[in-house]
Amino acid sequence: MSRCLIIINPVSGGGRATQYAMELQWQLSTLFEHMEVKFTTKAGDATRFAKEATENGFHSVFCMGGDGTINETVNGIAQGGGTSKFGFVPVGTVNDMSRALGIPLEPLAAIRALKHSKIRHVDIGRCNDQYFCNNIAAGVIPKVVEEVTPKEKQLLGPLAYFVKGGQALFTTKDYSFHIKTEDHDFTIRSPLVIALLTNVVSSFEKFMPVASVDDGYMRIIIFREYFIMDVLRILPLILRGSIYTSKYVTILKVRKANITLLDDIELPTNMDGNKGPLMPVDLEVLPGFLQVYVPDKKKK
Question: Which residues belong to any copy of the DAGKc domain (predicted)?
Answer without folding.
Answer: 1-131
